[in-house]
Specification:
alpha/beta; seven-stranded mixed β-sheet
């Protein structure tokens, strides 16, 4: 019996902290024969979240590496995370609702190979409460952004955006649902384009 040749597609780790809806969109897209990336592993910093179950149901290895045992030592947690990634020959990281502020060590280690999705039209509204801030500003549209991760919060080079209207009577919750639908379409497409653009051989 011969050993299968390794996949030529970049191996992606998706990092989550919760329900994993964007992760699920990436996993579903990766099942297409012409998808230029594969999801190799899903890792959560919170145990028992729904995203882990979704990954396992799709046949993806799903791991928990809780941050709490590391206390305030963020870098120690990230070094343990990095070891898991290297063991699985991961080449790209996709953050999908990963609710951790990353240290310069991890950002530097994976510079140019780590992407994030943010629920606003960056550079508008970095950080939290993006939908409420857009409504309060009387914006006519909102959206989401895929960007490379750099040391600044939500400041990395933009890889793609999707826009949705803000409707009369919208609440942060109704707007969030509309933006979430756009996210699920945007993230797989942008990650695919990004994977094609890289020479990781």
């Amino acid at each position: 019996m011969t050993t299968p040749a390794p996949s030529a597609r970049p191996r992606v780790a998706v990092l989550i902290s919760g329900s994993g809806t964007n992760m699920a969109a990436l996993v579903e897209a990766a099942q297409a024969p012409d998808c230029p990336y594969e999801v190799a592993v899903v890792i959560s910093n919170v145990a028992g979240v729904a995203g882990l179950d979704k990954a396992r149901a799709a046949g993806i290895e799903a791991l928990t590496l809780e941050h709490r045992p590391y206390g305030k030592d963020r870098e120690a947690h990230e070094r343990a995370l990095d070891a898991l990634l290297l063991e699985r020959q991961v080449q790209l990281i996709a953050l999908a609702g990963y609710m951790r502020l990353l240290t310069p060590w991890l950002v530097g280690k994976w510079a140019g190979r780590m992407v994030n999705i943010h629920p606003s039209l960056l550079p508008l509204y970095p950080g939290l409460n993006t939908h409420a801030r857009a409504i309060e500003a009387a914006d006519v549209e909102a959206g989401c952004t895929i960007h490379l991760v750099t040391e600044g919060v939500d400041e990395g080079p933009i890889l793609g955006q999707a826009r949705v209207p803000i409707l009369p009577g919208d609440t942060p919750e109704t707007l969030a649902e509309r933006v979430k639908g756009a996210e699920h379409q945007l993230y797989p497409r942008v990650l695919a384009d990004f994977a094609r653009s890289l020479n990781l051989s």
